[in-house]
Amino acid sequence: MVDLFDGYGATLTPAKRRGSSSPWDEMFPEPKSQDPVEARAAYKDIYNALARMTQEELRGRTDALASSYLAQGVTFDFAGEERPFPLDAVPRVIEQKEWVDVEAGIKQRVKALEAFLSDIYGNQVAVRDGVIPAALISSSTHFHREAAGIVSPNNVRIQVSGIDLIRDEHGDWRVLEDNVRVPSGVSYVISNRRVMAQTLPELFVSMRVRPVGDYPNKLLQALRASAPNGIDDPTVVVLTPGVYNSAYFEHTLLARLMGVELVEGRDLFCSGGKVWMRTTAGPQRVDVIYRRVDDEFIDPLQFRADSMLGSPGLLMAARLGNVTIANAVGNGVADDKLVYTYMPDLIEYYLGEKPIIKNVDTWRLEEPGALEEVLDRLDELVVKPVDGSGGKGLVVGPDASAKELETLRNRLIADPRGWIAQPVVQLSTIPTLVEDGMRPRHADLRPFAVNDGTDVWVLPGGLTRVALPEGQLVVNSSQGGGSKDTWVVGQEPLFSSNDGHNIQGLVAEQAAVTQAIPIIGHVPDHSPEDRPRNQDQAQQQQQSRAQDARPTAEGEVL
Amino acid sequence: MAMLSRIAESLFWIGRYIERSDGTARILDVHLQLLLEDPWIEENLACRSLLSVMGSDVPDDGRSLTRADVLASLAVDRTHPASIAYSLGAARENARRAREIVSTELWECLNTTRARMPRKVTGEKTHEFFGWVRDRAALAVGIMESSASRDEAWHFFTLGRSIERADMTARLLATRSLTEASGPSWTTILRSCGAYEAYLRTYRGVPSARNAAEFLLLDRLFPRSILYSVTRAEQCLRDLGPRNERIGVTDSAQRLLGQIRSQLEYRPITDILQELPRHMDSVQDATSAASEAIRQRYFPTNNAPSWIGESA
């Protein structure tokens, strides 16, 4: 019965690190025992469905997931070979009542980040009030003076955000990093759900999983809402660096599901302060560009002059208010990991609220005494460069060799502005099918939020990434990470209250409609020779009945 | 050059059955998938409506229907007249009757399709199964399109396909009224006939009831729209029986199709939407009647002799 989970508990406390407690397991509250049986309430149904399967069966399904991804082209490039994007068959489950808090926390964070960017590229009131030092802003690699004063008419700079969350040892959510430049991964959320429902339908039975397919609509609405003033029917395009980009699949998926053009830099040109795309019917005006090209490449006149990925003059057109670039240029300053450490203060400063989701404790190395303390404890901390994302350049102290630590030490002393340090946080674990069987693996969560200027909408769920090697704490698909479908489930799902009607009402309406209009499809036509037999029989019966009846009728006439 | 009525009839029905298996697979795939993905759809009700839209009997014994029931009857039951298995079997039977005219390639395609038709499809394999049915239908159509001479045989085949397409799209649109209140169903409907991406490219945005219905009913370029299918069927009929009448149309199939086409084409879309089920019903009426008219005109030999008691 528990075949699939045999030996799960044994490895639950992997490579225990000095001074850290064991991670929070998402599925089992009592991970110490050899064979965990009692799953958390949210996972009960999943656990029962999985427990009915053997390991071979689940592996078969996992192979089916992979081959479906190969067929669809949901792949990434691994050493020149096309591999299916790794998707684990066990979903991550978040209960609706818990999700409400995560959602509120993300909304709050996005609003604060918007306020921060608008301030930094405006009057810099927060600097004047001493909330954040001016030197920090101006020394940030991604702070672009060129972007000052460029904002869409609805004052949105962060149309799309992906704020990475983790769960610490106590099960509390924490923000790991902010991504408000060009966060990617949402296409995997959409395609993971689809392929899971196709391949493991029995897991969905009796679970009310909130759908994720609405994302492209929400994104399109947000992009249209940010269009320049006076444009009734804006032309939206997705700007991709091209087919060799690792997220190209995502660009095509979003363009396809929004029904908009996917353009490359060479398809665009700027003229008269406006942006056009070359079409078979001549130049066509472009009003909103959802760009998936980094700031540095977007406009050779402003940034890297050798860039072929953007289009010269884009930024000027945006400055003139003739085109909206989403997300806005210069957002990277908010992703700076030193700015991250100020986020709790900034939330209080701009919104007058306490942060709903906490940060991970972080040392700022330029503060007095901090660098000394961190250097002293380098082998028990995690050190990250401030401008990297997704685990780039990160060093996990306890896992690093003496030589690596020595190099790191020198780099920290040379550039304390460029690094932050954090205690090792044991990311929560989720059962994941690996070679040995079902084993706990560390995971994070990237929820996606779309801001249309009136509301920040958070996609229910998000991308759960798992680190496949045992004990590995860096979760990134470029470093051998897998993914999981993420389910927000709940018996009483809450639609945002402005929808006006609840689910029961919705179901009742559906039921009422179905009963009110009896739709009887026609019985299918059939070729005379292939007519179903029972129909023939029925006819024959009718015929014979008619024959039976006839004499009587005749009799009556007679 | 004229051809045997019997052969022509077989080709007509091969076209209809291939198209029907494809259409049924698409409708079932998306609707059964939706049942899983959207937790707020009531399974029993949805399954019942699905059965009824496909023109099959809905059991009235009061028990709850599940996906598995729909799958069992509409997909794999060889004796169920609205099932995929039935259509694939009938397509093959028709090809066998017209074996001397049907190309070897097409025959082998239809024959192996029927032979490989599974007797049971488990939950996790449903999507794969429907994909297979679509593939086989596309293969059969592709063989015809790429290698058949554009003679009468091809015209009858295409005529059958076009009529069946109009019928299938009408059924599909009728499913819309089943889920009046839920958001994603226009998306679902578009997706089920492979129209979703074409629609997005045409309208650039979120499916609205009006636009989606307009697209599937009236688009002149999208090959699965009712208008396109009916127009194509009319064209086939004109090619089959060219006339130079100065007044009106004498062929009753053409007349029936022309009538339903004008009704749809010249009626405001909002009117149609208000009474979608009724209009979809009349489309199915028209295709059925046209099919019968075609039979009477072109395949008259099939007035199947039936025994009448001597006493009569």
TrEMBL record, chain A:
Residues 535-546 have a biased composition (Low complexity). Residues 14-35, 521-558 are annotated as: Disordered. Residues 91-467 form the Circularly permuted ATP-grasp type domain. Pfam families: CP_ATPgrasp_2. Residues 523-534, 547-558 have a biased composition (Basic and acidic residues). This is Circularly permuted type 2 ATP-grasp protein.
TrEMBL record, chain B:
Residues 3-299 form the DUF403 domain. This is Alpha-E domain-containing protein. The lineage of its organism: Bacteria, Bacillati, Actinomycetota, Actinomycetes, Micrococcales. It comes from the Bacteria.
